[in-house]
Design brief:
It comes from Kiloniella laminariae. This is Ornithine cyclodeaminase. InterPro entries: NAD(P)-bd_dom_sf, ODC_Mu_crystall, ODC_N. The protein is α/β, with parallel strands linked by helices. It has 2 domains: 153 residues, 2-Layer Sandwich (ornithine cyclodeaminase, domain 1), CATH 3.30.1780; 173 residues, Rossmann fold. It contains 11 helices and 17 strands. α3 crosses α4.
Length: 359
């Protein structure tokens, strides 16, 4: 990791919401998503180097607050993130997040960043990366004729659409949300970007003719968004919304006839759709596909399911990518975050000297 120049170790780059917006727009959203996908893929190829643990979660009746840490032995990262579905009724974001990178050798932070926008981008990039390998066999495909049904048209929906277009070439979308204003919002945003949109009035309608079904709903409950009879043979399901204990979107019968893929099983068995299944039910981790260590297509089932809950390595990749963009874009500020006494052993003396200076 590139170090800060001598004498500036206390100065930590900070990426605000305004900075992040500027960085993404400077790159172009789809370019950002495509390059971020590459960073995540690079780190999944290094899977065995990373510390891995299920996220540390504090659950309440209204939502969850989580910490997501990991390290590759050289860089340490963490993300703080919440999930509060009822926030939208108060005019608040359902998900907010921030994160940091630090240098393992010194323990000093080297980046502090907002991650509300960045989490939406990395979630879409991870969805597209999984589909690249599970639908296209590892190759990007431009000008695709694939149609995607997007169930849940809230804050994450446009990012998912753009991620699938950037990597798979998806242009045709079918939209549904129980909140019709959310569908109108999503349709208006995406039509301006050139997508072919069909807004639908029910789940049964939205899945008609869809090659890919993305579910990204927010309610913290064991919901059944899709039932078994709605999902035909050959469909790829990108299940994003079921991401904590007691929160699911798919009927169990769909899982029983699907080849299932997940990011990190010790976490997904707690939080994902597969919390509905026996602990020994066969599930393949995504890194095995990316590294070519699984021949899952032999004797495969007739539905492919990516049970996505989000994992710390993806946040690590996103922060690493943003850090690499900082010198190029200049969209950050420096924060004085680390005490730097003349004598590292005399922190109290620094405090006393500061008091004298103030006087």
């Amino acid at each position: 990791m590139k170090q800060l120049s001598p004498g500036q170790q206390n100065q930590v780059p900070f990426v605000s919401v305004e900075h992040m917006t500027s960085i993404v727009l400077a790159q172009g959203v789809e370019t950002f998503l495509s390059e971020l996908t590459d960073y995540i893929e690079e780190d999944y190829k290094r899977w065995m180097l990373f510390d891995k643990t299920p996220r540390v979660a504090s659950h309440s009746q209204e939502g969850v607050v989580e910490l997501m840490p990991t390290s590759d032995g050289e860089i340490y990262s963490f993300k703080y993130v919440n999930g509060h579905p009822k926030n939208s009724k108060k005019g608040l974001q359902t998900v907010t997040a921030f994160g940091a990178l630090s240098d393992v050798d010194s323990g000093y932070p080297v980046l502090l960043s907002e991650m509300t926008i960045l989490t939406a981008l990395r979630t879409a990039a991870t969805s597209a990366l999984a589909a690249k390998h599970l639908v296209l066999g590892g190759e990007e495909k431009k000008g695709s004729s694939l149609t995607m049904a997007l169930i849940g048209n809230g804050a994450q929906s446009e990012f998912q659409a753009l991620g699938f277009r950037a990597i798979l070439g998806v242009e045709k979308l079918r939209l549904y949300d129980i909140d019709k204003t959310a569908t109108r919002k999503c349709a208006e945003n995406l039509e301006k970007l050139g997508f072919q949109i069909v807004s639908c009035g029910s789940v049964d309608e939205v899945v008609l003719g869809a090659d890919i079904i993305t579910t990204v709903t927010a309610d913290k409950q064991n919901a059944t968004i899709l039932t078994d009879n709605m999902v035909g043979a050959g469909v790829y399901i990108n299940a994003v919304g079921g991401d904590c204990p007691g929160k699911t979107e798919l009927h169990r019968d769909i899982l029983l006839r699907a080849d299932i893929f997940a990011e990190y099983l010790p976490q997904t068995r707690i939080e994902g759709e597969i919390q509905q299944l026996d602990p020994d039910h066969p599930v393949i981790e995504l890194w095995e596909i990316i590294q070519g260590k699984s021949d899952w297509k032999k004797g495969g089932k007739n539905v492919i399911l990516f049970d996505s809950v989000g994992f710390a390595i993806e946040d690590f990749s996103a922060l690493r990518y943003v850090k690499d963009l900082l010198l190029k874009t200049g969209h950050y500020q420096l924060l004085d975050m680390i005490a730097e006494p003349e004598d590292p052993r005399n922190l109290f003396g620094m405090l006393q000297n500061s008091r004298k200076s103030a006087a």
